[in-house]
Amino acid sequence: MREGWEEEKLKAVCQIKPSKKELSENFDDVVMVSFLPMKDLGIDQKYTKAEQEISVGAGKGSYTYFQDDDVLLAKITPCFENGKLGIAKGLINGVGLGSSEFIIYRPKENLTSEYLFYFLNQESFRKTGASMMTGAVGHKRIPKEFYQEHLIPIPPLEEQQQIVALLDRTFAAIDQAKEKLERNLHNAEELFQSKLEAVFSQRGEDWEESSLIDISSKIGSGATPRGGQKAYKSEGISLIRSLNVYDEGFSLKKLAFIDDEQAQKLSNVEIEEEDVLLNITGASVARCCVVPSDILPARVNQHVTIIRTHKNTLSPHFLYYSLISQSKKKLLLGIGEQGSTRQAITKKQVESFLIEYPS
Questions:
Q1: Which tens digit of pLDDT belongs to each residue from 179-227?
Q2: In 149-229, at which residue ranges do the beta strands (DSSP E only) sit?
Q3: Tens of pLDDT along 272-330?
Q4: Exposed, middle or buried, 216 (CB in 10 Å: 0-12/13-18/19+)?
Q5: CB of 56 within 8 A of CB of 30?
Q6: Roughly how many angstroms between the first and final C-alpha of the chain, as a whole number?
Q7: Are 270 and 299 within 8 A, CB to CB?
C-alpha cells in the first residue's frame, strides 16, 4: 500500500442502496423523476443519463432509488460481467428510479464517484465477483458479502482526482484511436468494394455467363446431427455452420465437431479444398467464404451450401469475390427475402444463379 493510502471495505466508504425513505420525505408522489431500466445502463460509459421519467408514487414501491453522483452497478449475470456500470448525472429533480438489479453506491466524503467508478470497472473486480455469483443459471447475482465487503484502496482526495484525470485522458485517447480505426476500416471496405465492382462491371469480350450448376461439380447442403448441440463433440470432424461463414473469411469461433459415425451420415456433404461456402438461411443469408484447408476434414449443416466449381472453368476464389461484390450480394439478398417464412435461398435458386467470368 502506498504511503498515505488506506484500504477499506466498500460499505465503510459508501452508503449502499440508500433507503427510499429519503424519497418519501423530500418528494410528493406526483413529482416526476428520472427512470433508468437495465438496458439503458451503459457499458464503458462513465456517466449515465436516464432519458425516461416516472412519478415518485408509481415507482418508489418496486424500483431502486438513486441520486445524481451515485454509482450504479448491475449485480445480475451477464450484465455484471459485461461491465454495466455508470455514474448518475442530469437526473430530473436530481433523483432516479431504476432496476431492482442495480446496486447503488453513494460515496462518503473521502471517496469520489469517479474514482469509485474506475475501481469497479476493473476486469479483476468483475472476475472476482463473477466467481462468487450464486443463484439459478441465467439469474445469478453477486453476493452481498462481495459488493459490501470487497476492499478498495483509498488515496487522498487530491490523488484520487489526479488518477481520475489520468484515466480520463487515457480512455479518451483509446476512444479516438478506436474511432479512427473504424473510419479506416470503413474506408478500406468501400475501396475494396469499389475495386470489386470495377472488375465485375467492366467485362471483356471473352467473358461468358453461366448458371452455377453448369460450372460446378457439387452444390448441396447438409444437416444437423440428431440431438443438435448436445450431439457435438469436443474434437473430431469439423461441422461448419452459418456462424462460421463470413465474407471477410472463415471464423473458427464456436466451430462444432462430430464423430466418424455422425460424419458418415453426412458423407454427401464432405468438404474438399477450395470449396466455396454460402449461407442459405437466416439473418446471415448470402454470407460467403472459401473453406480453409486447415479445418478439413469437414461437413456442413443445412444452413450452409457447398459450391464446388470445375476449376478448369472457374476459379473458386474468383467465384467468392464475385459473390461478395455489391451487385451479386444485392441479388442474393433479394432472393433470400423471397422466403415464405424466413430468409432463405433454395438449392434450385443457387443452381440457377448466373455468374459472369473470363473464359
A1: 888 887 777 777 777 776 766 667 767 788 899 999 999 999 988 887 7
A2: 151-154, 207-211, 216-221
A3: 999 999 999 988 999 999 999 999 999 999 999 999 999 999 999 999 999 998 888 88
A4: buried
A5: yes
A6: 74
A7: yes
The C-alpha angle with vertex 114 and arms to 108 and 116, in degrees rounded to 5, equals 60
Rounded to the nearest 10 degrees, the angle between the axes of helix 157-201 and helix 113-120 is 50
Would you state the cell numbers that stand for residue 290, as one nine-digit string?
A: 472459401
Lowest mean pLDDT among 116-130, 198-212, 223-237: 198-212
Cell of 148: 459490501
Q: What's the rounded Cα separation, in Å, for the pair 289 and 305?
A: 11
Interatomic CA distance for residues 214 and 237, integer angstroms:
30
What grid cell was written down for 83?
461491465
Helices and strands of the chain, counted as H and E runs: 12, 22
Query: Distances from the Cα of 249 to the Cαs of 37, 219, 241, 246, in angstroms?
Result: 38, 20, 13, 5
What residue has cell string 470497472? 121
pTM comes to: 0.59
Provide the β-strand partners of residue 14: 107
Distances in whole angstroms, Cα of residue 13 to Cα of each of 106, 119, 212, 305: 9, 13, 69, 60
C-alpha distances (whole Å) from 76 to each of 19, 40, 45, 129, 133 are 21, 15, 18, 10, 9
Q: What's the rounded Cα separation, in Å, for the pair 272 and 295?
A: 10
